[in-house]
Amino acid sequence: SSSPKGSSGGTDDDDDDGEEKNKQKVIPTFVVLPRGAHPAVQKFLSLHKHLFPIRSLKSLPSDLSGLHRLGLVDAQRRDRIGPAEHLLSYAKRVTVVDHHIDGETDIPEATDYVVEKVGSVSTMIVERLQQSQLELSEAEATLLALGIHADTGSLCYDSTTPRDAFALSWCMEQGASQAAIAEHVQSSLSVEQQGVLTQALINTNSTVIHGVTVSTVLLSADGFINGLAAVTQDALELSSSDVFLLAVVYDPKAGHGRNKRGRGNNKESPSKPMDFRLKSKLLQQQAKQREEEEKTNSAMLPSSTYDTESWKAGEEALRRKRLRAAFDRKDIDGSGYLERNEIAAAFAASGVIATEDAVDALMESRDLNGDGRLDFEEYVAFATDAEKWQKEQNKKSGQKACTMIIIGRVKAGINMKDVNLNRLFQKFGGGGHAKAASATARLSDENEASTLLQGLVDELIDTSLLKQPTVGDFMTAPVLSAKPTMNEKQVEDLFTRYDVRALPVVDDNNDVIGLVTYKEVAAAKQRFWNKEQKRLRREAKEAKEAAAAVVAAAQNRTTEETNTTSTNNKKERKVDFGKEANAKRRNQQQSGSALKGWMKQHVQLVEASMTMAEVEAVLLNTDVGCIPVVADGTKQLVGMVTRTDLLRQHRYYESLHYHNKGFADSIAARKPIIELRKKLKKFDLENE
Questions:
Q1: pTM for this structure?
Q2: By CB count within 10 A, which of 96, 148, 291, 327 is most buried?
């Protein structure tokens, strides 16, 4: 967690009431971080630790009989306070301050519980400081702001509350350095953590259940590794997984690799040449298969590789030939020596990510001439000791106790709304948030690790990964449709009457042949208006020309009236015919053009059996607001799926009611409405 997981205590013997009343009395108080802090907070403290009353656990007074009060921050279980557990027996009062409301405690010594539903425990501390009207220093405000950022993902996690935002705002008002926050909140991974991340991505095992990608990786290490939570979060994002479980098995007695460098005359024992290792345990079977393939390939090498002299020299000569071939493959630059980077690359190719300490320890124990690199003879000696050590390990039949730490992260999304890692990990004494939790299990044999991890995945699938709803479960139905013979005005009237912005276009067989939206209607109306304006201008011009012709005829009229009655009748009939043709053409123009000519014809369709995730991907990729839904294997219209339908499923907003009219019911429940709609369809606007 981002907040200090530890204790604050004093050596005062007064009772609680005396402490509350005598505000001027100073009680010696210390902050202890027995299990460390979030990497961002830890990085900040590395430069600012002298500004805070933080002490190591070993530096506390040896006589703890005067320990008055112990505060456990962001910790409700004993494994969260680790080596500080012995302080519980000395404290007269134990206060638990936490924000995991679903967590269970195994600390019966606790006398006070302060557990509230907020995104960060730092928020609870900030609120109490604010209520006390205390002013913070810039460093103190920055530290608390970092705690809120780390716990809430900079206010992006779904567990974030308005209280967290207000608390962060108050810290900024108190002078929190935004420059320091920007520098520390996105802390980079250490070299050791980068090695773990690389190995995790290489050995990730993924499976897709109901559209949810669940990824797991099981690694073994020589000791405890800090910062695995950040590694798991990065692995979740880089692997495109929805759920990521990282498990690391290590020997708790081995300690941390970084601490081994300064132990004086500590050298690698020849019997354990690969003591510093981080290796995938789930892929051991594949590694064995690769070894068998390498042996097969070695046996199939050209005869020049194993010449006659090698055969005469016996098995040892053949072995040296094989080692020479392996040495040459690892010697990337062809220098005849193995440098540090080549050794690390060789470990990685074998499924092992070696830390810098591991490579240094190996070079120190195997570099006999001290030139900082391994020649072939030193490599042979190393391989010989490694083979002996492996044989000894194979002969051992006893079980090896170990510790397994499991860290889980879950992406936010509708498909993962029922995933609760906090509840899943509680059986091992772990916990945290629903989408971010961890647990520590003590195993009698490291071979139990893969079974335990598989059991967690099985329980996760059975209890949390529910079958996704299909489009037919939440689409809008029954749905109106338009006919290809409709004109602009008829379609616009449908939009206005039923308050819709898009309609599927179907033929007489109810097959979808297109889609019309308000954009197409607006464009068609604009084209129709342009045509009308052009027609009016043409008619005005013709009327003007006709009037001019009449005036000219009147001026040139003669008194000759030799026209017969039949000729006049023919002219009248001709004029009448021209008027009728113009009126007919005008009526056709005023009625508009058929929908078939300006609708969207090549539209995306989805079948009713598609899942919500699949439809959402189609909706985002095509950038459309609605998609017609058809029966499986046909183009028969059964409904429409819109952005609003998807938003109802996500349930982002309480104001967007899920049960909107009848649209949230199943198709079977909607069948009477659908039948009624079919009967009433003959009274639709197009037939009026």
A1: 0.60
A2: 148
CB atoms inside a 10 Å sphere around CB 641: 26
Give 199-253 as a 3 state SS string.
HHHHCCEEEEECCEEEEEEEEEECCCCCCHHHHHHHHHHHCCCCEEEEEEEECCC
Contact between 520 and 600 (Cβ < 8 Å)? yes
Encoding tokens for residue 403? 């510790």
Categorise residue 243: left if φ over 0, alpha if ψ from -120 to 50, beta otherwise.
beta
- Alpha-carbon span 260 to 279, nearest angstrom: 19
The kind and range of the H/E element at 94 are strand 93-98
What type of residue is 94?
V
Distances from the Cα of 180 to the Cαs of 145, 229, 510, in angstroms? 10, 22, 63
pLDDT at 53: 86
Q: For the purposes of burial, counting CB atoms within 10 Å of the CB of 227, is it exposed (0-12), middle (13-18) or buried (19 or more)?
A: middle
Report residue 46 as tokens. 């590395």
How do 626-630 and 205-209 pair as beta strands?
Answer: unpaired
Residue type, position 675, single letter: E
Which residue type occupies 11?
Answer: T
Q: Which among 379, 463, 450, 383 is positioned nearest to 418, based on CA atoms?
A: 463
278 vs 629: CA distance, rounded Å: 51
Helix (H, G, I), strand (E, B) or coil at 412: coil
Distance CA 521, CA 414 (A): 35
Confidence of residue 175 (pLDDT cuts 50, 70, 90): very high
